[in-house]
């Protein structure tokens, strides 16, 4: 863990990541596990959000408590990030949900945006970028740039697996972004060692294409 990188060490997270890596895990199980992991990571990633003091009536008396007091936006990166939304919403049902769509140019490995459904002014929101894989970091960087252009001052990235290259890219460009992931893998594949059927730039050992494995499109 560094100042802005939090890698969950929870035993259940390690167990579920191992299940996701396994090629025998089918898309229904995969999708369910992604949602479960997202809920656990949401619990950890929201630990520093603001609350305000309130007074409530219990069956016995009145007592002081705290009420969640932030406007939250969830920004799943299409399409793989969609699988993380329900897990996050289970803990933050009042969150708003927007969408950004990128596809990766397989020659340049750079993101190309094809869909943007964000409000114009997000200056009052804390935003969580949801993407299972932080590989090259290109999509995350592009998403942060767009959010900051809309006025966001507090952004957190929540993902399942990250490569050191993606972490370095995101930290280098935006050192104010908190990164919450389940695990950090060894590296990205390159042209010399990319397995058949996978272009360079995939996380190694990874879990394959998170979108395909969630939605049964392998």
Describe the structure.
It is a single chain. This protein is α/β, with parallel strands linked by helices and 218 residues long. It has a single domain (5-44, 69-215), classed as Rossmann fold. Helices cover 30% and strands 31% of the residues. The strands form three sheets. Strands 1, 4, 5, 6, 7, 8, 9, 10 and 11 form a nine-stranded mixed beta sheet that branches. Helix 3 links the parallel strand 4 and strand 5 (96-97). The chain is globular, with a radius of gyration of 18 Å. The mean pLDDT is 92.
Q: What is the gist of this entry?
A:
Helix content is 30%, strand content 31%. With 218 residues, it is of the alpha/beta class. The chain has a single domain, classed as Rossmann fold.
Described by its quaternary structure, the protein is single chain
pLDDT averaged residue by residue? 92
Poorly predicted regions are none
The percent of residues in helical segments reads 25-40%
Indicate the overall shape.
globular
Q: CATH top level?
A: Alpha Beta
In terms of DSSP E residues, the strand content is 25-35%
Topology of helices and strands:
Layout: E1 5-7, H1 11-21, H2 27-45, E2 51-57, E3 62-68, E4 71-78, H3 85-91, E5 96-97, E6 99-104, E7 111-117, E8 125-130, E9 133-134, H4 138-149, E10 154-162, H5 164-173, E11 178-184, E12 187-188, E13 203-204, H6 210-215
Parallel strand pairs: 1-11, 4-5, 4-6, 4-8, 8-10, 9-10, 10-11
Antiparallel strand pairs: 2-3, 6-7, 12-13
Task: Looking at this protein, list some descriptive labels.
9-stranded mixed sheet, 218 residues, Rossmann fold, two-stranded antiparallel ribbon, alpha/beta, 6 helices
